[in-house]
Design brief:
Blueprint lengths: L8 E5 L4 E5 L4 E2 L3 E8 L4 E6 L2 E2 L3 E2 L4 E7 L7 E9 L3 E9 L5 E4 L3 H9 L1 H10 L25 E3 L4 E4 L5 E3 L3 E3 L6 E3 L4 E9 L3 E9 L2 E11 L6 E2 L4 E5 L10 E7 L2 E3 L1 H6 L7
Parallel strand pairs: 3-10, 11-13
Antiparallel strand pairs: 1-2, 2-4, 4-8, 5-6, 5-9, 7-8, 9-10, 12-15, 13-14, 15-22, 16-21, 17-18, 17-20, 18-19, 19-21, 19-22, 22-23
Length: 279
């Protein structure tokens, strides 16, 4: 698959008029996969992913869509999907390859590192407290391709980089993308959506969470200032915040994460996908 384009891969076409397409079948841990299909002559009654129910958005013409993905720490295994119709079950199984990531030493001041250690319980507690904001599955608000929330700002730390704390030795995966942006730089909505949270948290600092529909959410951390309110409808390209260095950080930047079913996935995948243009 070319990095600048999305090639839909025809996987199967049954006599009943069932077709399904995947954005990629060469899957690595942490990848975001977009799936759409057609169920023309029968009704799609249920979809399961790795034994669990998967939520699918249905259109009136028999077309269906879903996003899916695996956690970056899903080191090996398979992505298994079963589409159940009135007459048949259509099964697809793809290996999930272990993502090769670089290990980067993150240099913290003693004071910052001490705060991270002392606040470890707070970090876990804060993370859990935000789970509820990523749960709702709604109709798609997004239309067309997604754009970078940072404009032309370069990436300073990519998704899934294996970070090692210079003081504590604690290692963890980076579950988002960091853009190199000074305090006060404009942050843009990558697509249409609804703001489900705009506020402050001790670790994440000033933050915004946007629901784009179909279980897809994007989050923006360590902001200098949010320019939107909870419940507000926003449009693609709208300025939603100013980047900053609030919360537990080592310097000014924008941390952007993309989630599907509350699992952080590679936002670069989303920016590379080509969707039908807006009407």
């Amino acid at each position: 698959m070319k990095p600048e384009s999305l090639i839909y891969i025809l996987v199967f076409q049954a006599l009943f008029g069932f077709e399904v397409f995947f954005s990629s079948t060469n899957i690595f841990s942490g990848d975001l996969i977009y799936i759409f299909g057609f169920c023309r002559n029968e009704k799609l009654t249920n979809t399961r992913q790795n034994g669990k129910s998967a939520v699918v958005y249905h259109e009136k013409n028999g077309k269906f869509h879903l996003f899916t993905g695996s956690d970056v720490e899903f080191f090996s295994g398979k992505l298994e999907l079963v589409f159940m119709t009135e007459h048949s079950n259509y099964r697809y199984s793809f290996p999930v390859n272990m993502r090769k990531t670089e290990t980067r030493l993150i240099t913290f001041t003693n004071q910052t590192a001490a705060a991270m250690v002392s606040d470890r319980k707070k970090i876990i507690s804060e993370s859990r407290s935000f789970h509820e904001f990523y749960k709702a599955f709604t109709e798609p608000y997004w239309k067309g391709n997604f754009i970078s929330p940072a404009g032309h700002a370069p990436v300073s730390s990519d998704f899934a980089v294996h970070r090692s704390n210079s003081v504590t030795g604690v290692q963890s995966f980076h579950r988002g993308i960091d853009f190199l942006m000074p305090s006060g730089a404009q942050v843009y909505a990558p697509n249409h959506g609804i703001v489900v949270f705009s506020g402050f948290a001790d670790i994440r600092g000033n933050l915004v969470i946007i629901n784009h529909g179909m279980g897809l959410y994007t989050s923006y951390f360590h902001l200098e200032k949010s320019l939107v309110k909870t419940g507000q409808k926003i449009k693609k390209g709208e300025i939603i915040a100013l980047s900053g260095k609030s919360g537990l950080v080592t310097g000014a930047h924008l941390h952007w994460d993309v989630r599907i079913d509350n699992t952080c996935v590679n936002g670069t995948d989303l920016l590379k996908m080509h969707f039908p243009p807006e009407p």
